[in-house]
Write a structure and sequence with these properties.
This protein is of the alpha/beta class. Helix content is 38%, strand content 18%. The chain has an 8-stranded mixed β-sheet with strand order 3-2-1-4-5-7-6-8, sandwiched between helices. Strand 6 and strand 7 form a beta hairpin. Helix 2 packs antiparallel against helix 7. It is globular and about 45 Å long. The two termini are 21 Å apart. The structure holds S-adenosylmethionine.
Length: 274
């Protein structure tokens, strides 16, 4: 076990990140344009590893019967649908996103679930102002979405607010591998190859695939994002690099009222497994 811990008091308020336009209007329009090709693009650009990452995310959830789950920035719904498939009876799954074109595709994909599991709601909502009451969901998740939310800390705080005390907040997000050789390959792939392949799919929206490396480059990963989760009010935050650190899975617990936040921990890094 390779655990590292930091002093939660050392966490800092978010800095403003310059250079990448993450305004709601820009992000919404970008996903509206790429929605019809989003799934195909995702699977090709990640060489299908994104499916494995989402499976890993679902396995980290402690799903209990009869309590609802929310997947924010659900997009075309893959994580929400995977949760619905794995969940015990009586778990209502809700997917939220502010891009209706993405949600339309998510709704159509419900037919892929067994009939008794199709009761997944996809609703239009900004992750910075979720239309749910406090302490409502047993788990609140986000996959490859938080990086796109204009105000990261507001998005995180909203996830924590709607999560029940004792419940889990889970984030799956790209991260930057640190292994020598892989790091250089990754930078080259992200900056030069991925935007070109992406352009073939996105056709008229070249900016969508310039945006991806830019947004990953400026987004906190590893310990820095774990610190932001603590800053948002989560406890027992841990993170697990997946596929040599190309993506990372972060999980935190919403403390019961009397508890205070504790130290983020890095769990065993993985070599691959996919
Ligand atoms: C890269 S996609 C990820 C979709 C999905 N979670 C997945 O794993 O494929 C990011 C999604 O976040 C949504 N999004 C970005 N900012 C948002 C916000 N402020 N509120 C709601 N959805 C947002 C976009 O509309 C888009 O569907």
């Amino acid at each position: 076990m390779n655990n590292t811990a930091v002093d939660p008091d050392s966490t800092t308020a978010p800095e403003t990140v310059a250079g990448v336009d993450k305004s709601n209007a820009r992000v919404q329009e970008m996903f509206r344009q790429i929605a019809p090709r989003y799934d195909a693009m995702n699977h090709v650009l990640s060489m299908n590893v994104d499916r494995y990452w989402r499976r890993r995310a679902v396995r980290r959830l402690n799903l209990e019967p009869n309590l609802p789950v929310l997947d924010t920035c659900t997009g075309t719904g893959d994580l929400a649908l995977a949760i619905a498939k794995a969940a015990p009876a009586g778990v209502d799954v809700v997917g939220s996103d502010f891009c209706n074109a993405m949600l339309e595709i998510a709704r159509d994909k419900r037919v892929s679930l067994p009939s008794e599991r199709r009761d997944v709601d996809f609703i239009e909502a900004d992750s910075q102002a979720l239309p749910f009451s406090d302490d409502h969901f047993q788990c609140v998740t986000v996959a490859f979405g938080l990086r796109n939310v204009a105000d990261t800390d507001m998005g995180l705080r909203e996830m924590v607010r709607v999560c029940r005390p004792g419940g889990q907040v889970l984030i799956l997000e790209f991260s930057r591998p640190t292994m020598i050789g892989l790091k250089q390959f990754y930078n080259f792939y992200f900056k030069h190859i991925l935007p070109r392949i992406g352009q073939l799919f996105a056709r008229n929206d070249k900016s969508a695939y310039e945006y991806l490396p830019e947004s990953v480059g400026q987004f906190p990963d590893g310990q820095a994002l774990a610190d932001r989760m603590v800053f948002a009010g989560l406890a027992d935050v841990s993170f697990t690099p997946l596929t040599f650190g190309v993506a990372t899975l972060y999980v935190g617990l919403k403390p019961e009222a009397a508890e205070t936040a504790s130290h983020p921990e890095k769990t065993d890094a993985e070599g691959g497994g996919c």
